[in-house]
# Entry
Amino acid sequence: MKIAVVGTGYVGLVTGTCFADSGNEVTCVDINKAKVDALNRGEIPIYEPGLAELVEHNVQAKRLTFTTDLAAAVKPADIVYLAVGTPQGSDGAANLSALWSVVESLAPHLRTDAVVVTKSTVPVGTCARITSMLREFTGRDCDVASNPEFLKEGAAIEDFMKPDRVVVGVRRQEVADILHQLYEPFLRTEKPFLSMSPESAEMTKYVANALLSTKISFINEMANLCERMGGDINDVRRGIGHDSRIGFAFLFPGVGYGGSCFPKDVRALEAMAVQHGLEPTILRAVDAVNERQKSVLAQKIEQHFHGDLGGKTIAVWGLAFKPRTDDIREAPALVLIDWLLEKGAKVKVHDPEAMKNVRADYGDKLEYCDMRMDALEGADALCIMTEWKDYHSPDFAEMYQLLKSPVIFDGRNLYEPDRMKRRGYKYFSIGRPAV
Ligand SMILES: NC(=O)C1=CN([C@@H]2O[C@H](COP(=O)(O)OP(=O)(O)OC[C@H]3O[C@@H](n4cnc5c(N)ncnc54)[C@H](O)[C@@H]3O)[C@@H](O)[C@H]2O)C=CC1
Ligand SMILES: O=C(O)[C@H]1O[C@H](OP(=O)(O)OP(=O)(O)OC[C@H]2O[C@@H](n3ccc(=O)[nH]c3=O)[C@H](O)[C@@H]2O)[C@H](O)[C@@H](O)[C@@H]1O
# Structure
């Protein structure tokens, strides 16, 4: 099939590349010329494991191209995927301005039998609105479908190639058949292809992200409670997770969820509820708990240093909102760093992939260390904000020598408190006793 993917960000680039890899002819379109030029030079604008190799392979096979020319990409396309950003607007609802502008621009170039598919996360009713916009612009009924994406950054290729399920929202069975054919190569392990109305598909995406966010906020609240009552959330996590009704996934306590999706999607769903006259009690609580959780390490640091951080040097390991990505959108590490700078601390940072993005925002306000151990030299404490594999088994004796005082604030519970105590550290983590 000939496919146009509009919006070549995390989702658009992965979607386009994976569809090209399964034999389709894909043109990825973006409004950002610098990004398209970079892709045409063979440079990948984001860090996502395995993506660079897959892009290169499919470009060489002449199945994957990049352009800023929307008309040229749309004209021959059997399917036009929309994967532009849908960021949070000032009122909390999703801002769909990029999407509307794309729909208007592509309408004159759409083949009469083409299918337009939303891959972006869009509020319930968006497919219906695109359908009426296209009717207005083209004078005919066009097929518009929803196909929400469930990939995780850092595992995007794997998630796309081996999805737990594929969800499509369609008005006609013929459109479901076309999308089923497109996805068949990815469903060979008998994973379900679920066809429903566009409204249900759009809602499915928000409900999935909201439920995952709820699990995280729930375990974080329980972790904070454990700490005050003398329990250990790790033991509690194990204690509940073996119950097959509960399970272990997404119940790791930490410094709050970040990223470009959970925070905005919870708020967008909240906004939809309010628009429809429903009080989103749980969603508001999930968001509020998460905002509070981003400052739990700051509270521990403040207490330890008796509120005086002026002249102190703090090392921060992990800047990305999660491991295996360079994405720093809504990263909890940045909330901590802003607070440390405000308190007058000197901040030394390390991250395996995200330092370039942080440097673009913070410039010389921070000291950037290419090696994780360099960040520790002369530091009064180390804060761990992202659970990169690089931080799981460091040389604790060497760290002890490098740090000015052996104090660790671990926002991801990477180490065993008792062992840290034996190694001579003062060790604070989430939902476990400080030692
Ligand atoms: N990042 C993720 O892991 C996931 C994101 N999503 C959803 O996918 C959508 C896209 O997210 P990301 O890829 O992360 O966003 P992104 O910000 O990385 O990429 C969006 C791209 O769209 C381009 N764009 C904006 N206006 C355009 C226009 N008029 N014409 C052509 N291109 C245009 C931008 O230049 C940018 O390259 C969002 O709705 C998001 O909620 C869904 C699942 C996972
Ligand atoms: O809509 C989206 O954009 C995507 O959002 C999330 O994916 P992503 O944000 O890339 O990463 P996650 O692995 O879900 O992590 C999100 C945040 O939750 C945090 N988290 C995750 C799991 C956990 O147990 N505890 C926890 O604090 C992570 O540290 C991270 O900050 C969802 O997992 C994807 O299914 C979805 O497609």
User: Anything to note?
Assistant: The chain has a mean pLDDT of 97. The pocket of uridine-5'-diphosphate-glucuronic acid (ligand 2) is lined by residues 121, 149-153, 209, 212, 216, 250-252, 254, 257-259, 261-262, 321-322 (CB under 6 Å).
